[in-house]
Design brief:
The protein is an all-alpha fold. It has one domain: Ribosomal protein S17 (Diphtheria Toxin Repressor, domain 2), CATH 1.10.60. About 70% of the residues lie in helices and about 0% in strands. Helix 1 crosses helix 3 and helix 2 crosses helix 3. The longest helix has 23 residues. It is globular. The relative contact order is 0.18.
Length: about 70
């Protein structure tokens, strides 16, 4: 099994996807760069990577739900 994502990070990821849908998507590297551009968020490298990965998974889930 993989590691779980903390509730606080899940909440942040969902809020970011709602507020900036054009900034975030299914590309991990672009999501990392977009997280670095947000000045209010001071994230450690590990937290940024976890959040970018969570956003990728959520974006894929949303796209799959649209296709069904």
């Amino acid at each position: 099994m993989g590691k779980s994502v903390a509730k606080g990070l899940k909440y942040r990821g969902e809020v970011l996807l709602e507020e900036f849908p054009e900034e975030f998507g299914k590309d991990f590297v672009k999501n990392k760069a977009a997280l670095n551009k947000i000045p209010e968020m001071k994230l450690s490298k590990t937290t940024r990577n976890i959040l970018a990965g969570y956003i990728v998974r959520e974006a894929k889930k949303k796209e799959a739900a649209k296709l069904v």
